[in-house]
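Protein chain data
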Amino acid sequence: MKNLFTDIEFSSSTLDRYFVRTSISKSLTKMAPNFRGKLLDAGCGEMPYKSTILNNFNVTEYVGLDIEGALDYNSIVKPDFEWDGVTMPFADNTFDTVLATEVLEHCPQPLVYLSEACRVLKPTGKIIFTVPFLWTLHEVPHDEHRYTPFALQRLFKESGFKESTILPLGGYDASLAVMLGLWINRHRGTSLLDKILRKILMPIIRKLIAIDLPTADFKEGSMYTGFYGFAEK
């Protein structure tokens, strides 16, 4: 079965999520040198990146963790461990890497999550993350935050990490592509006009994604689809 997170194809039905999913996969590849040893996927969901990580990165063991009573993404795929949102069920200094893809926006108390991630990491271990900035309300009502780079840096520092690197997932052109995709696939319907609009928008969205070159200067007036990076304990 095709993995719709890592193997998503560009089509009329994926205009709303194509860039977001491909940008996350690409960000993990860019972060590959930071993956090592025993990895905790903290907020793993369906664990869509497990095979990619184990087959391509320097990771020796993969452990999936999710919150007790988390949304039932998949009736077959279950996390290896569950936690209560307060204390992760692991000893201090257990993992070399923590992965947090699209998790922090769902944490009512992100400092609790990050402090626990820092605690279970070994010294010099790293948390690798992605977060959305431009996206719809999702997993309602468990959608809590949208972060700026400055908020992320502060949260990592306050939770015990020594330093953090924040990078953009997509800039102005990708943001427009995402909004057009969301508008046509989630706001519009299936009328003849909507089908015509999709055909018109497909090459425009593809072009916007192709020319997108976001910069990490994070200056006044900048626009981003989301952020990725890492923080070191």
The first helix runs from residue 18 to 30. The two ends are 37 Å apart (CA to CA). The helical segments are 18-30, 50-56, 110-120, 149-158, 172-187, 192-211. The CA atoms of residues 9 and 18 lie 7 Å apart.
